[in-house]
Amino acid sequence: MEHDRETVPLPLGELFAEGPLPAHHHGCFGCGPSNPASPRIVFERRGDTVRGTFTMDERHQGAPGVAHGGIVAAALDEASGSILMPLRQPAVTVKLDVNFRSPARLGRELVVTSQLSARKGRKLFIDSVLTDGETVIATGYAIFVEVPQQHFVDLGATPGELFTIGG
Questions:
Q1: Which residue from 50, 106, 118, 55 is spatially nearest to 78, judged by alpha carbons?
Q2: Residue 54 is part of a domain; what is its CATH number?
Q3: Which of 12, 25, 56, 159 is least enclosed, having the fewest CB within 10 Å?
Q4: Domain range spanning residue 153?
């Protein structure tokens, strides 16, 4: 995985097997099949990394023919959050640094990958990269903080709705 710094992924454990991961929930902006604005990123676990594929269309457009920077950042955040599934760890994004490198063209299959690079107390440090073939579109460095499952229920989730992260 190409990054601004060298990292080695930390183990994700055995709570979620290799292969396809379910959507975070049906209405999720990044991967939800019921959200009409979603680019419907489809994630899978590959060892200690998570990989997602998707194609953006006119709903995601910024300048003509290219994706808005916000959806690029959202894809990196979504991939970072997908690391939580194999860990079965509820957490929230507290920081996301994005480095944009190339325009993300609409109508192309893009790949977003993420890996857990460090943990310190309740903090999880996650690196991500968005590519179009061999071209790096953007890289991300996220910090997530573990929260209790009740955090999401207090904000409106139905108990058990977020089973993919233990919530």
A1: 50
A2: 3.10.129.10
A3: 159
A4: 19-165
